[in-house]
Model the fold of this input.
Amino acid sequence: MQARDQGLVLKAACLYTTAFLLTLLLHELGHALMSWALGGAPVLHNSYVDSRTPNLSDRASLLIALAGPVLSLGQGILFLLLARGSRSGSSRALFGLYLGVFGVINFLGYVMTSPFVPYGDLGQVMTLLHVPTWGAVLAAVLAAAVLVVIIRSTGNWFLRFVPTVEGQAAKEAFLTKRRAMQALVFWPWVVGSIVITVLSWPLPTVLSIIYPIMSPLVLGSAFGQALRNPSFGAAETPSLVRTPAWVPVVALLVLAIVYRALQGGVAL
Done:
């Protein structure tokens, strides 16, 4: 791996992991704030919320369960719209793109698992709304299809962060683009999955280890779409390449400390 590719991997992995952790925290904060608004005394943890409210009504349980996924959906829509209208190749733009895809993945992923994980957020919603099994399965299938379409469309947006190399033959240019996309998608997934799992230990549920590993796999559709695009990458060297590596590293360290500190819970 060339030095420039190594630098890109480091920065992208830090931005990816920071965006993933922030998505998790915002999701749980949505649950906690809804519980608090309904008169509860929630304790916010990094991967779950203890409502500490006895005898919750079905309506309250429904609203609390919905709050996290709906906040993630809003996050995803907002940042994907910003990414769609952007032409920037900055580290901030890549961070926003990660926030967009993770927000959508979070929401639609819960829809996809709702027939099989009744204790998950939208699994609880389906139960409380008395949605039949076939309805939950249909929703899961539709969610999977929509997710692939959305994430595939971001493949071309990732190309904004792929630095070009002048004078390369077509085959060499393709290999350069593939290495860059690996640095933006594949290696951040590998590194991020490890870091998130370590920061979440001890894991409260099996899903806590499955989620950071399995949910981003859909980014493979963005990877493939980018490679199929005949255009190579950014017209100019993306400013992400010039971003000092310490900036995303410090951002990750700060959020990792916050995330880990919430392991013991904070009462709202």
Observations:
- The chain has a mean pLDDT of 90.
- The beta strands are 43-44, 49-50, 266-267.
- The longest strand covers residues 43-44.
- Residues 3-37 form the longest helix (35 residues).
